[in-house]
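Here is one chain, start to finish.
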Amino acid sequence: MTHEALGSYFCNMKLTLSQIAHARSGDKGDAANCGVIAYKPEWYPVLQQYLTKDRVKEYFAGLCLGDVERYELPNLWAVNFVLNNTLGGGGTVSLKLDAQGKTVASAMLMMELEIPDGLIQL
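Its structure:
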């Protein structure tokens, strides 16, 4: 029986993004830039399919006030996100504690993804 036939309730697993990837972030003016890189090439398709810009926008609701852009970098097994209107005007004018967006990567890695059970081997 296929995953689709069983339904999502019975065959999904949750994993923390940090289990399959590492990340790095910083500022680009008022935007936070965050790259997420799979540890293994076979885990990159999970990032492609399940780490969407809508999921990132939802996860950073209240912090990211603008659009989220997503760029794929398959040769690096990575996806890069630009979270617009996130840093309170940018490093030189922001009153936020993290005006350069350095903690965005750590926060991103705590995100849980729900994927089909058996899709990857940890």
